[in-house]
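#onboarding

Welcome to the new folks! Below is a worked example of what a typical request in this channel looks like: someone posts a single protein sequence, and someone else replies with the predicted structure as tokens. Don't worry about understanding the tokens yet, we'll cover that in week two.

Example request:
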Amino acid sequence: MGIQKVLVIRFSSIGDIVLTTPVVRALAKKGYEVHFLTKKAFKSVVQSNENIAKVWIWEKKELAQLKAEGFHFVVDLHNNLRSRRFRFRLGVKGKAFPKLNIKKMLLVHFKRDKMPKKHIVERYFQAAQPLGVESDGLGLDFFIDPSVENPVSEKKYYAIAVGAAHATKQLPANLIANIVAKAPYLIVLVGGPADVALAREVEMLCGHKVINTVGKTSLAESARILEGALKVISPDTGMMHIAAALNKPIYSFWGNTVPEFGMYPYFPANSESENLSKKFEVKGLSCRPCSKIGYGKCPKGHFKCMMNQDLSSFV
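Example response:
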């Protein structure tokens, strides 16, 4: 019998795909040829991963080619109607990770925390259990092309991820300005084209205390900036997970979501960066968490989960 091929499915997002990398690495170490199915927008997140033999883009026309690959097993790390339907049509045995939507709903709507006290990465591994793989304790992976250089020449700086997929996860400009005022080093702002307006607002508030790279760098260049930072400040977003993959100390800020969902920074075992990291959240708000993902604006209109953040322990 030749090398067995395994297809890993995770359609989105940047952070979620980075969180799949321990499973991908474990499968490759076990001797499986790992293929990865995702959306076109997220190909850049996985294309440099040395543990992946081939990246497939989700398109219906690809089904026949995927069938021809002769996969041994499908590890479904998305687990929605689309991925389940795809597995059925592919006709290959597989397993999905437990998404725990009912328990998330209990936490969001009734503030009853029935979530397991484990990271989502550990739940991802449940989908690969039939293949006999286990976590190696080495944390997340994010591979940066060696030709990509850090566009920031400063030797000592903190990096702030200003953006998030949803506004209720995002750091408000005034909060960022307060962080900048307390930080002992220059701050580099990172983010994508959607975050340009917020970054400009921060620039107006902070002036020469920040370097604004938002909308001016590729994902790989932004990762290089995080890699060179002394600390990374980030909301619950993809940049936070990239920073964890790079084993950087992280000050994570939690707005409408909570770490109890299991998507807090995931570090290697005995990581010094984990010991230097902190979680900032406004506890005791009756409206929090208001969503397992996020909203375009605060449903209550006050956004206290971010506006009332206590920075007294920020150093």
